[in-house]
Write a structure and sequence with these properties.
There is one protein chain. By secondary structure, this protein is an alpha/beta fold. About 40% of the residues lie in helices and about 15% in strands. Strand 6, helix 9 and strand 7 form a beta-alpha-beta unit. The longest helix has 21 residues. The protein is globular. Bound molecules: pyridoxal-5'-phosphate (PLP).
Length: about 400
């Protein structure tokens, strides 16, 4: 077997299951799961109906490049959502459908890594776990950029020495970020582009939370906007990753896309042709319906905004937390061991969170997830409020 498989870490949810093993939470308190980032809102009926109406199309193999209808819908959505200007995203050469961003983030590293000796893949820390696994299996060394209250939960790119950037083949960015929900500005992204050009690396911008944000007047920017603002009309060295999982609350549909530099898209398409990751045609057509409609995404976002508005006043008096810019998590400092906090909260309140240290690695002498927990606001509004009240009761009792 591939010896690199031994480098993979135990996935956070497996660690969490072990942490909870043997604990019997109080009977009579229904369980509330706030650990997994799985959207729970009702999927849009018109998307499901389009899927149903096209099931007969399962009788033929889909092409890896995807239907031009889908790539066109996606290009138009990108232009609308990020005010890029008509015709800036070419559906024929700049867009590929993927079966959710998870597989695409993983596969992309396999396609990109390999041209530099002693290759590094840089990523935020804490991070979405796939970034690290993808880097390790591709044969690169992960390089962690710690994020904490001091840097506003955004990786400090200027703290990275030039010799590290020279070994870097790819930089993962997550905007808005998971778990802290911080949004990087367009100026920050422009700076990342300068570094990518200077040190010859690719930027993989995971923008799967781009449609979940708290302030309607401040939608998170895309790396593509930073490209155009700096005259990089063909999105040189860039790939953005988007998904319907969060935007349309259809995590089971497995539908997303990548878009960016046509030179990279065409190489990634070659990789994917061999990898065998074409999207089924009914899924593609349901995705067209979803990308073409912005109203349901706005409605979906309002539900998250409502949850933050209801939950934050309950938790703010007892926990050290920041209102995020986007995504659907809270990332408080609990001021004590995060595993202990999670285990005892489960034992007392039948409520599951995720210990922050599971999402981060020790780097520069610290694990930036230590003493933090990730609270996922994916349950419905009433359950989130109930959960916040239970967390508050638990924390108040411990003080
Ligand atoms: C930061 C981040 N990226 C990517 C994904 C994967 O989403 P999907 O594969 O459903 O598009 C997730 C899911 O939780 C995530 O949190």
């Amino acid at each position: 077997m591939n010896p690199r498989l031994d480098l993979l870490h135990t996935y956070p949810f497996e660690k969490l299951a072990r942490l909870k093993a043997g604990i019997v939470p109080p009977e009579g308190l229904p369980h509330i799961a706030m650990s997994i980032g799985e959207p729970q809102h009702e999927p849009p009926a018109f998307v499901l109906e389009t899927l149903r109406q096209n099931l007969h199309r399962l009788g033929s193999y889909p092409a890896t490049i995807g239907l031009i209808e889908l790539r066109t819908s996606i290009a138009r959505w990108l232009e609308r959502r990020f005010t890029l200007g008509a015709g800036k995203v070419h559906p024929e050469t700049m867009v590929l459908p993927v079966n959710g961003t998870r597989e695409a983030l993983f596969a992309f590293a396999q396609a990109v890594v390999g041209a530099k000796p002693k290759a590094l893949v840089a990523m935020p820390n804490p991070f979405y776990q796939i970034y690290e696994g993808a880097a390790l299996l591709a044969g690169a060394e992960p390089y962690f950029l710690n994020t904490n209250a001091g840097n506003g939960y955004i990786p400090d790119l200027d703290a990275v020495p030039a010799e590290i950037w020279n070994r870097c083949e790819m930089l993962f960015l997550c905007n808005p970020g998971n778990p802290a929900g911080a949004t990087a500005s367009r100026q920050y992204l422009e700076h990342a582009l300068e570094l990518a050009e200077k040190h010859n690396f690719v930027i993989a911008a995971d923008e799967c939370y781009a449609e979940i944000f708290l302030d309607e007047n401040a939608p998170p920017p895309s790396l593509l906007q930073a490209c155009l603002a700096t005259g990089r009309d063909t999105f040189q060295r860039c790939m953005v990753f988007h998904s319907l999982s969060k935007r349309s609350s259809v995590p089971g549909l497995r539908s997303g896309f990548v878009a960016g530099d046509p030179a990279i898209v065409s190489r990634f398409l070659l990789y994917r042709t061999y990898h065998g990751s074409a999207m089924p045609v009914p899924t593609q057509l349901a995705s067209v319906a979803a990308w073409d409609d912005d109203a349901h995404a706005a409605q979906n976002r309002r539900l998250y905004q409502e949850k933050f508005a209801r939950v934050l006043p309950i938790l703010a008096p007892v926990l050290d937390l920041k209102r995020p810019d986007g995504a659907f998590y809270l990332w408080p400092d609990v001021g004590e061991d995060d595993e202990l906090f999670t285990r005892e909260l489960f034992a007392a309140q039948n409520l599951t969170l995720l210990p922050g240290s599971y999402l981060a690695r020790e780097s520069n002498g610290e694990n930036p997830g230590r003493q933090r927990v990730r609270i996922s606001l994916t349950a419905n509004v009433d359950q989130c409020v109930l959960a916040a009240e239970r967390i508050r009761a638990f924390v108040s009792e411990r003080k």
